[in-house]
Amino acid sequence: MSPRAACRLEALGYEAYDYVDGIADWKAAGLPTEGTAEPKQRVADATRPDVPTCRPDETIGVVASRVIQAGWDVCVVVDCDAMAIGRIRGPGFDADSERQAVDVMEPGPSTVRPDGHLQPLVDRMHNRNAPHVLVTTPQGRLIGILIRDEAARLLAGETPTQIWRDCAGCPGRWATR
Amino acid sequence: MNRLVTDIDRSQLLRLIEDEDAQLVDVLPEPEYVEAHLPGAVNIPLEHLSAETTGVLSSHRPVVVYCHDGL
């Protein structure tokens, strides 16, 4: 539909462009829209962008030191294109300090999109005892992490400033890295 | 002779909005536009696209059209 519209606009003398992925892509990226659609809390509203990341070739010793110093217990392994390719947590940090992240990580962790509704996701995470989930673009680029307990507090009515008072850029004001 | 229409992705769209004050045109049917549209977009459904209905647009700024998902 939009290619035809762009062609018509060109014919009418406008400098026209076609945003081919449309509003579906815009919403999937968690960007705001206008309109009458009932506002519901979405995954982006509870996504924090400050989760530690590392490269696949970094050693566990270096990664663990950085992650623990930052007060986290999870690290997302991202490739050169910011694609989330793995996750390191718990016992992974106790591996031989010279091993590379790619050899220790859990490959292909579950991810969700930022435009999904928050409540059903938190319900599913509770049922599966999942403390967190990675949030990515539809293409797999890391956006951040959603921590179930924080999301539950948001759903219970706490304000973002109460929940994320120490997190710069939280919640939801993320950018694709 | 008209140039070929340029397909853009989200990052290019954001750059056009930021740098060139691009105008957004939602070509979906009005009920869908009313429900949700990109901030600042005007609604000109495809079947109504004409010299008259596009009169609200400036010819000095880029125009970006979009629908649901390109299908």
Model description:
The complex is a heterodimer of chains A (177) and B (71). Chain A contains seven helices and nine strands, in the order αβαββαββαββαββαα. Chain A has 177 residues and is of the alpha/beta class. In chain A, strand 4 and strand 5 form a beta hairpin. In chain A, helix 5 crosses helix 6. The longest helix of chain A is centred in the N-terminal third of the chain and has 10 residues. The two termini of chain A are 31 Å apart. Chain B has 71 residues and is an alpha/beta fold. A three-stranded parallel beta sheet of chain B has the order 3-2-4, with no helix packed on it. Chain B is globular, with a radius of gyration of 12 Å. Classes of the chains: A alpha/beta (177), B alpha/beta (71). Chains A and B meet through helix 1, strand 1 and helix 2 of A and strand 1, helix 1, helix 2 and strand 4 of B.
Offer a concise description of the structure.
The complex is a heterodimer of chains A (177) and B (71). With 177 residues, chain A is an alpha/beta fold. Chain A contains seven helices and nine strands, in the order αβαββαββαββαββαα.
Mean pLDDT of chain A: 88
Number of helices of chain A: 7
Which regions of chain A contain 5 or more consecutive residues with pLDDT less than 50? 172-177
Q: List the total number of helices of chain B.
A: 2
Distance between the termini of chain B: 27 Å
Shape of chain B: globular
**What string, H for helix and E for strand, traces the elements of chain B in order?**
EHEHEE
Structural class of chain A: alpha/beta
Beta-strand level of the residues of chain B, as a percent range? 15-25%
Secondary structure: helix percent of chain B: 10-25%
The biggest beta sheet of chain A reads: 4 strands, mixed
Strand order of the largest sheet of chain B: 3-2-4
* Rg calculated over all Cα atoms of chain B: 12 Å
Biggest chain-to-chain interface with counts? A-B, 34 and 42 residues
**Helix and strand succession of chain A?**
HEHEEHEEHEEHEEHH
Oligomeric category: heterodimer
| Rg calc of chain A | 19 Å
What structural class results from the helix and strand content of chain B? Answer: alpha/beta
